[in-house]
Design goal:
Length: 212
């Protein structure tokens, strides 16, 4: 009985060892290649994302607000971010009666414009009305439909670049793509670089299994 048990145990161990060898051999026989496809392009047709700020005396606030309300009706996506009234009070004025002329107003809007012509129209209009303002470009802007199309085109270009790398590294052998992953748009520069310089970048990691 004991001898039969030992024989069964030995056979089981041998089967496990053989199975493990087959598994390692099969894994070793499958070869994989991983590459990162990249594409960087320009966006000359992109518009601008802007921050428009009014900083001026309280007496001018109503005049600016009438203009801003009119502009908001004409500009889709124009949003007021803040509206502050504060006292411009110097230390040497402590104890004196506060006058209306000491109050200042700060108002900020975010808005998107399609091109530099629209940007120039806003600045000329504000200059003509003699209103104090700051107009800052915070990035590039594309209409949602155009942005989606650009993303598709950019990813396709990155995938084509990955295929070129696979063709080179496979040395003429056939391969099958078994995995793809879009990577963050970090190298070679931070995302802000692409925003301010009206450029787009796509990076995609592709894994392929050699079949021959």
């Amino acid at each position: 009985m004991k001898k039969a048990y030992l024989q069964v145990l030995t056979l089981t161990i041998l089967l496990i060892i053989v199975s493990g060898c087959d598994t390692r051999r099969a894994a070793a026989e499958e070869e994989y290649i991983e590459v990162v496809g990249e594409y960087e392009g320009s966006l000359p047709e992109a518009g601008f994302r802007l921050n428009l700020t009014f900083n001026g005396p309280l007496d001018m606030h109503d005049r600016f607000q009438v203009w801003a309300d009119s502009m908001q009706r004409q500009t889709e996506g124009m949003v007021k971010l803040n509206d502050n009234i504060y006292l411009n009070h110097m230390p040497e004025q402590m104890g004196r009666k506060i006058s209306r002329s000491q109050f200042q107003v700060g108002v900020t809007y975010s808005l998107n414009v399609a091109d530099s012509a629209a940007y120039n129209r806003i600045t000329r209009d504000l200059f003509r009305r003699n209103l104090p303002f700051h107009l800052n470009v915070t990035g590039s802007y594309l209409e949602p439909e155009r942005k989606a199309a650009v993303q598709r085109e950019s990813l396709q270009q990155a995938l084509d670049n990955a295929r070129q790398k696979l063709d080179f590294l496979s040395n003429g052998r056939s391969y099958e793509i078994v995995g793809m992953e879009e990577l963050h748009q970090s190298p070679p520069y931070a995302p802000e670089y692409y925003e301010y310089n009206r450029r787009t970048i796509s990076r995609i990691k592709v894994k392929a299994r050699l079949t021959e």
